[in-house]
Sequence to fold (265 residues):
Amino acid sequence: MNLTRVGALVMRYVFVYRRNKMRLVELFFWPLVDLLVWGYLTIFIQQTGQGALPRFITFLIGAMIFWDLLYRSQQGVTVSFLEDVWSRNLFNVFCAPVRLSEYIVGTFLVGLLRVGITLIPLLTLAWGLYHFNILDVGFWLIPFIVNLLVLGLTLGIVATALIIRYGDSVQVLAWAVPFFFQPFSAVFYPVDVLPSWMQAVAYALPSTYVFEGMRAVIQTGASSWQLLLMATGMNVAYLLLAMALLRRMFNLARDRGLLGKLGIQ
Fold:
C-alpha cells in the first residue's frame, strides 16, 4: 500500500469540503438536531417519571453519540465514493495507479476526519446542556469506539460494493444501510426487550455487544470482556467478508463495463 496515494486521495476529498461550505454544514446539522431532540425528550420523560429513570438521559445521549460515530464512519466511505460518481471522477481515479485497498483506506480516513469534526462540538454541547461526559465510560471508551468505527467501515464497503454492482438505482443504500441494522442493534434499549427472533439477529451484530457494554458501564461502572471480544471477533470476520464482496463486485463491474455507467443511468 502506497501511503502517498492514500494521502492524495484524502486531500482530494478534503478539498471538496473546503470548496463547498454546505458540506461542512451537513457535518454538524443533523447530529446537533438529534442531540437536541433526544436530549430534551429524555429530560421530559425523566421529569414525567419523577426520577424513576435516573440514568435515562445518560443512556440515550451516549447511545445517540455512539450511533453517530458508526454512521459517520460509514458515510465517509460511501459518500466519498459517490462524490467520485457524481463528479464523473471514478474513471480518473481507477485509471491512475490506485489500488482498491488504497481507495478504501483513503475514504475511511476521510470518514475519521468527519467523525472528529462532528464529535468535538457534539460532546461539548452534550456536556453543556445535559452534563453528559463521555469520558465517564473510562477505559472501555476506546475499544467501543474502535469497534463502531470498524463496523461503519464494513457497512460503507458493503454499500459501495452494492452500488458498484447495481448502479445508480441503489444509491439510497449509502444512507439506508446503517438503519437496516439499527432496530436490531439495541441502540436505545436493552436487547432483552426484543422478541426472540429479533434477538437472534441482534446477537449476530457487533454493534449489539458494544451498546450492551456501554449500558453496563454507565449502570455499574464496568463491562464484560466477553462482550468486547464478541464485538471484535465479529468485526474482523465481517470486515474480511466485506472486502471480499467489494473485490468481487468491483471485478465484475469492471469486466462488464458497469463502472462507466455509474452516474449516467
Remarks:
- The two ends are 33 Å apart (CA to CA).
- Residues 26 and 118 are 10 Å apart (CA to CA).
